[in-house]
Write a structure and sequence with these properties.
- With 883 residues, the chain is α/β, with parallel strands linked by helices.
- Helices cover 66% and strands 10% of the residues.
- The chain is built from 28 helices and 17 strands.
- The strands form three sheets. The chain has an eight-stranded mixed beta barrel, surrounded by four helices.
- Strand 4 and strand 5 form a beta hairpin.
- The chain is rod-shaped, with a radius of gyration of 79 Å.
- The structure holds ligand C2E and calcium ion (2 copies).
Length: 883
């Protein structure tokens, strides 16, 4: 799995960048604007400060200018010369002084107080220093006025102070103008400037007039020209203000200057300026009083104008501050909105996407989790797609799991899966399931094959035992016995021999079907092998019922069978056994078999029931078998050897090994008495193995001993059961290997009936011959082998049965001659058994029989007693034909 690229940007960071870039831009723009606004605000603020300073200083100036009037009034009252200069007589002055003195003192006091207050008001403003300096000068003047100083000098000094203050006021206004005022600000400052000028003239008009009339002639002349300047200046300034001032300023100004006091002052000063008429004392007081009132009104107007100027000049600062507030508020709102948008984007886009990515990774890692749906439509679409994928993967997994759990029949695995992947998976699951079904079918059929006979489809021997076992279990529970019929076909071998194996098979099929049709539904017909069958009857009512069934079976089997265009006929011998309390399946089969055996012996085509006699026989057999088993281990079995003579030379070529049981208390028991018992079980194979080893060891012994017994061949009898066993090959090979005897010196004798009965016998014999071992057909003539079959049989030697040799008569002699010549034409050697008489020998010699065996030459004897007979054989008469 590829790790995510380290350089890849997460959605979160991209969104953050998307939001932060404009936010940073906004912040810097706001910064610039704030800076600019602050400059504007600072400029406006300082302009306002300057205007306020000008206003305050102007108030000081106006107040100082007013102080001159009562000072002059006092000096008039206190100086008789001054009064006379004014045309006032001394007596009336004293009266007036008595009358007006306190008023003037009062006026002076209030004007001085106003000056002091105006000075104090400048504290903390740029005008403070100038006001304080002026106040100091004024304080000195006040002192000199009260101490009766020179009025003219005082007056000049006052004028100087006022002129200085006037210049300073102008300087402050200029400083305000320097702060690049806006329209309203500039207009307000211009109003103030004009009002200032007019006020300055107005405040000087009356003092200068009074100065011109009350002072010494030199000073008075100067004062008069100054008065005329002030008078003219006031009118020009008044006209200028009225013409160019703003409406508010003009209205305020006019109200202040055209009141009663203003009119009185104008009347007197106009007359004084135009005609130069002398001032009467009442006029003097009227003028000073009116002047004070007018100046107070003017002052009020100027203060108003000044306040407006301050307001107008500081307005940009307020506006800037307000703008700033708005701007910051807007920026704040914008930031809040941005943050909210970010939160929303994070919550509704980034988070669902992040979750989806995590889920996609989990799915990639094979975790089939529930995919949550959320976020914007596109994300939901992807989530739905992923959820659908997970769902179909889950179904794939569920189906695969079901297959793995073997639940291949569940509906789940049959449901088709979505998409092309689903189609492929479903196809492979279907394929897998059908493969499983096929395997199960094969297994079932194999199981069927293992438990059933391929030819007749009936249960085979193993299955028969299972069925009997089950029936016995049920019978034990229900206390009802199980019946077993052992059916052994009669004359089946003849059919096989005469019509061929295919016909034999067909007959078996027909007969099986007939038996199945004869029994009840619950009863089972099984084929044990060859022409042996059993019928399991459950429950078995009584012996009679079973015997009747047996008879019906015999009738069914015995009916003619059509094989192609020919008709064949077989019969059956049946043994019946019924289970007892402790009967095992093997035992029940054995009992039925024993009964069938007796049926066969008692003339075939009959039903025999297992009875006490058979029981005794069986138990004797069982005893014998047990004893024989021990005998084999205990070394009670011995081999006797009977010489086989070469009839052409009369010498002994080999011996046949024949088993004897040296049974304690019984003497030497002949094989006929125990071999049939041994053949009922694998014990016969153990005996065969023992005989093989024993006989070959004996050859080795003789070879080693030397003499006439060295180099003999040996024939060992092998039973059908042993021949059918796979391990016969190993047994023979082991015996050969252990003894070191050449295989060609060993002949295995197989009775003719075995060759016909055992289908695998021929293959086994072929394999044995490939070892180099020779095979002889024993007891030839007792079975049903036709001479025509000989070339197909893997054999080397034919042993003609004793009965043919011993039975007298020309017919038999002819038959023997025929067999011998047939065998020779198929390159088989012939041994004649049971030769007891010379005549028999001679006719065999005449028939060109190769070898002979019989009491005539020697009886079978213990190895120690073996001596090899020799016989002079007469040459064959010329007519007998040479071999
Ligand atoms: P068989 O293979 O046909 O053996 C020949 C039998 O004929 C022997 O009987 C032998 O003693 C007997 N015999 C030989 N010459 C004469 C004679 O001139 N006149 C008469 N009347 N009998 C003669 P035995 O030894 O009693 O064996 C009987 C059968 O037992 C054998 O018949 C063979 O089928 C079987 N048998 C013997 N030994 C073995 C063995 O080791 N294994 C197996 N499977 N069967 C054996
Ligand atoms: Ca034999
Ligand atoms: Ca024989």
């Amino acid at each position: 799995m590829r790790p995510p690229s380290r350089r890849s940007l997460t959605l979160q960071r991209s969104l953050m960048a998307l939001v932060l870039v404009p936010v940073l831009g906004l912040v810097s723009v706001v910064g610039v604007v704030v800076d600019q606004r602050r400059d504007v605000s600072v400029a406006a603020e300082s302009a306002a400060v300057q205007v306020r300073a000008a206003v305050l200083l102007d108030t000081v100036r106006g107040s100082v200018a007013q102080e001159v009037v009562p000072v002059l009034a006092q000096s008039v009252l206190s100086e008789p010369t001054t009064a006379s200069a004014l045309g006032l007589d001394a007596s009336s002055i004293a009266g007036i002084a008595a009358l007006a003195g306190p008023a003037i003192t009062q006026q002076l006091h209030s004007v001085q107080t106003a000056t002091d207050e105006a000075v104090t008001a400048t504290t903390g403003t740029p005008a403070a220093a100038e006001a304080t300096a002026a106040a100091r000068t004024v304080a000195a003047l006040r002192k000199s006025a009260t101490t009766g100083g020179d009025a003219t000098a005082t007056f000049d000094s006052y004028r100087q102070v006022v002129a200085d203050l006037t210049g300073q006021v102008d300087a402050h206004l200029d400083a305000a103008r320097d702060q690049s005022l806006d329209g309203p600000g500039a207009r307000a400052v211009a109003d103030l400037d004009r009002a200032q000028e007019a006020t300055t003239y107005a405040s000087l008009e009356v003092p200068l007039y009074l100065g011109s009339v009350s002072l010494d002639p030199a000073t008075a002349a100067d004062a008069r020209s100054s008065f005329l300047q002030a008078w003219g200046g006031y009118r020009a300034a008044d006209a200028d203000l009225t013409a160019h001032g703003s409406a508010d300023a003009v209205t305020g100004w006019r109200t202040a200057t055209t009141g009663d006091a203003g009119k009185q002052v104008d009347e007197i000063t106009n007359a004084a300026a135009l005609s130069g008429t002398a001032l009467s004392l009442p006029q003097f007081f009227t003028l000073t009083t009116a002047n004070t009132a007018r100046n107070a009104a003017i002052r009020g107007a100027v203060v108003e104008i000044g306040d407006r100027a301050v307001a107008a000049t500081s307005r940009p600062a307020r506006r800037a501050a307000e703008d700033l507030r708005h701007l910051l508020l807007a920026a704040l709102v914008l930031l809040v909105v941005t943050a909210s948008v970010m939160v929303v984007v994070h919550r509704f886009i980034a988070r669902p996407l992040h979750r989806l990515a995590a889920q996609a990774e989990a799915v990639r890692d094979g975790e089939l989790l529930d995919v949550a749906e959320g976020g914007p439509r596109e994300v939901r679409t992807v989530a739905r797609g992923l959820a659908a994928t997970v769902a179909s993967l889950r179904r794939v997994r569920a189906q695969a799991q079901a297959v793995a759990d073997g639940e291949i029949t569940s509906d789940l695995v049959r449901e088709p899966l979505a998409g092309s992947l689903g189609a492929v998976v479903h196809a492979s699951i279907t394929q897998m399931i059908s493969a499983i079904h096929e395997r199960e079918r094969l297994q079932a059929s194999m199981a069927h094959q293992a438990s059933h006979d391929a030819l007749t489809e009936l249960p085979n021997r193993a299955e028969a035992l299972v069925l009997i076992e089950r029936a016995l279990h049920r019978s034990a529970r229900h206390d009802q016995p199980v019946g077993l019929l052992f059916v052994d076909l009669d004359h089946f071998k003849q059919v096989n021999d005469s019509y061929g194996h295919a016909a034999g098979d067909e007959l078996l099929r027909v007969v099986s079907a007939r038996m199945e049709a004869t029994v009840r539904g619950g009863d089972a017909v099984c084929r044990l092998g060859g022409d042996e069958f059993v019928v399991v009857v459950e429950p078995a009512e009584d012996h009679r019922q079973l015997v009747e069934l047996g008879e019906r079976l015999i009738a069914a089997v015995s009916a003619p069978v059509l094989l192609g265009d020919r008709t064949a006929r077989v019969g059956a011998s049946i043994g019946v056994a019924v289970s007892g309390a402790q009967t095992s399946s093997e035992r029940l089969l054995q009992e039925a078999d024993a009964a069938a055996y007796r049926a066969k012996g008692s003339g075939r085509g009959v039903v025999e029931v297992f009875d006490d006699e058979l029981r005794r026989e069986l138990s004797a057999q069982a005893e014998t078998e047990e004893a024989l088993r021990e005998a084999l281990l205990g070394g009670e079995l011995v081999l006797h050897y009977q010489p086989v003579l070469d009839l052409a030379t009369g010498g002994t070529a080999g011996v046949e090994a024949l088993v004897r049981w040296n049974r304690p208390g019984h003497g030497l028991v002949p094989p006929d008495e125990f071999i049939p018992t041994a053949e009922r079980s694998d014990l016969i194979c153990d005996i065969g193995r023992w005989a093989l080893g024993r006989a070959l060891d004996q050859l080795t012994w003789w070879d080693t001993a030397g003499g006439e017994l060295a180099g003999l061949t040996v024939a060992v009898n092998i039973s059908g059961r042993h021949l059918a066993a796979r391990y016969l090959l190993d047994d023979v090979a082991d015996a050969l290997a252990r003894s070191g005897i050449d295989p060609s010196r060993l002949t295995l004798e197989i009775t003719e009936t075995v060759l016909v009965d055992e289908p695998t016998a021929l293959d086994q014999l072929t394999a044995l011959r490939q070892f180099g071992v020779r095979i002889a057909i024993d007891d030839f003539g007792t079975g049903y082998t036709s001479i025509g079959q000989l070339p197909r049989l893997p054999v080397d030697v034919l042993k003609i049965d004793r009965s043919f040799v011993s039975t007298p008569g020309e017919g038999h002699a002819d038959l023997v001659r025929l067999v011998i010549s047939a065998a020779h034409s198929f390159h088989l050697g012939v041994v004649a058994e049971g030769i007891e008489e010379d005549g028999q020998l001679q006719s065999l010699i005449d028939a060109s029989c190769d070898s002979g065996q019989g009491f005539l030459f020697a009886r079978p004897v213990d190895a120690a007693d073996l001596a090899l007979p020799r016989r002079e054989v007469s040459p064959s008469p010329p007519f007998a034909g040479a071999r």
